[in-house]
Amino acid sequence: MAAPLYDELGQRLTDCCAAYSTYCEVGTFQKPGVIDQVLVCKGCYHPVALGQGDGTEFKPGVDPDAYYKETFRRDRWLEMISHSTRKENHPCKA
Ligand SMILES: [Zn+2]
Predict the structure, then answer these.
(1) Distance 17 CA to ligand 1 centre (A)
(2) Cα 26 to ligand 1 centre (Å)
């Protein structure tokens, strides 16, 4: 198994593209009318496992509070939000 990938501050990234991930709402054929939230990679939009790029897993020893303070200080937080709301190439153009 490949070692997990992290951004420069220690948040885990997706194994496939070393990107952040985002939740995508998808309908299921099994249960019509039911909307599921699926975590997808922002690089390739394939589903990824929880913890990959979703801001819940960090490099051992990295404190999530310190991570978010640092990203906020760098305005990277705003950049991440703008990425997550960008809809072009997104499979769920809701
Ligand atoms: Zn990917």
Answers:
(1) 4
(2) 18
Apex 11 CA angle, 84 and 5, nearest 5:
100
Which residues lie at CB < 5 A from ion ligand 1?
14, 16-17, 41, 43-44
Number of domains into which the chain is organized: 1
Judge if pTM exceeds 0.85.
no
> Is 11 inside a domain boundary?
no
Would 31 be classed as within a structural domain? yes
Tokens matching residue 6: 């992290």
Any domain includes 90: no
Q: Does some domain include residue 2? A: no
Query: pLDDT tens track of the chain, all 94 residues?
Result: 678 999 999 999 999 999 999 998 887 777 778 888 899 999 999 999 999 999 999 999 999 999 989 888 887 666 666 665 555 555 665 4
